[in-house]
# Entry
Amino acid sequence: MFARNLFIRPLFILAAVTLCACATTTPDQAPTFAPVVIAANPLAAEAGMDILEKGGTAIDAAVAVQATLGLVEPQSSGIGGGAFMVYFDAKTGKVIQYNGRETAPKAASSDWFLKEDGTPLPFVEAMLSGRSTGVPGVMHMLEKAHSAHGNLLWKDLFGTPVRLAENGFIISPRLGDYLTQTRLPQNNAPDLKAYFSDGQGGLKKTGDRLTNPAYAETLRHLADKGAVIFREGPLVEAIIARTSEGTPAGALTPDDFKSYFPKSDDALCEPYRIYIICVPLPPSSAPSLLQALKIAERFPMGEYGPTDPRGWQVIIEAQRLMYADRDQYMADSEFVSVPLKGLLDPAYIDGRVATITPGKAAPTPTYGQPSKAVAWAADNTREPAGTSHFVIRDRYGNAVSVTTSVESYFGSGRMVGGFFLNNQLTDFSFAPTGTDGHTAANAVEGGKRPRSSMSPVMIFDQNKNLIGMVGSPGGSSILAYNFKALIGVLDWGLTMPEAVALPNVVARGDTVRIEAALMPAAITQALKDMSYDIQEVAGENSGLHGVMFYPDRIDGGADPRREGVVLIGK
# Structure
């Protein structure tokens, strides 16, 4: 059931789901699909595939993947963070978006990240403080989805990460690399230094074995009791205590945890050429990705191809317009009015396209005025790139596309129960008002969910058959990374591995960052000749994971910039 829910509808708070000791559902479809897991770490992908081979659904496997990622890739995501997920139910045809984004404490107000003199806190100070942590939502989200779409018992989904935490795992090159980066403020955080200590005054390194008995114990409680351990009890008390330490201190209370509920609704699905693209609703910024696609749709991208500067110019200008509107309007739709219908309206898209002159850089883009838009202050949110993405399809045809995060690398650097706490509240705009007196749409409010760039994507054909999924980490650049990959696959006819390996181009405001080593010099020069301010950078740290399903093959891609893997079962 595809929804074109262009208006934001109220999402009603659901009653808490009691964890059942029995299996929630038993798929009655014939297991005719090859299972697929693509994740950022081989151990996590293997944990998911093990669940699928035992008859589990995509949701079952997602629980195992997330629990394992929180151990082996803690710099990017974990059970102390949040996530957005798009789920495809093969039996009913429904496409559902799940929102496990963290919430601010009810005591939070617009001056949450301001100093006494009214100026914003230094970002690093805010990032490492207890004030940066919101109520974790990812496990509540997965439990809610499991109660509706799981097959195996919840308690049986944590075996692999518990074993790895107890017996130890080998630190991968990516994790080891972050432990060597003295520029990361979290690397000087006491909890991180204690956890990764090599016993000789330094931190462990790539190839070392790491155990985490505290995490194993937390996972056992999670398996036995369910996500209620993030609602009340010793773990909640420990999170409150840890975030209350230092200055500026957090203000989380037991009621903040008791009143947290994940959200679900029909996904936002819009046509793109002969395809249908489905994404989450705000506070995810994914609707902005749909807007960029609608801009690109006005151009013959297939004719241009990946070696034509004209195609890259369209990508640049679509991004610039997308970000201008996104920064102005995207926020938690339960607190502010998000003009989704106006932003995606064909007439409005035509007006945005009219600002693009082929062969010439457009003037500095400003946000537009879609129908029913409210005036907001300019946004100054910063979004570090500590996130992960994975995709899964089970034997029954059900699938998930999940982007999950603790925000910055290693979150706030603070640990409880063997896992890092998120610093997602720094995704709010630090300055609540602008010089014009308007409030920022993404300003801090008690109980509000910060805007996110996490944008998991599902792709369907005109007959509403699932034909692909994609997503990436990367902070605000997630939108640019996903956009590039979608153009590569859907317009340029590339394989998924080829599309994710394309050079990354991120265009926001007047600056265009280009992954210099991967972009042909002739294209870069042609874009400079169009008067773009090109910054040639050494790397754009995307972590794109995606898959396309064809009648004769499964075309999975893991970003070569990271250490993800593609696993395809029989």
About this structure: The longest helix spans residues 309-329.
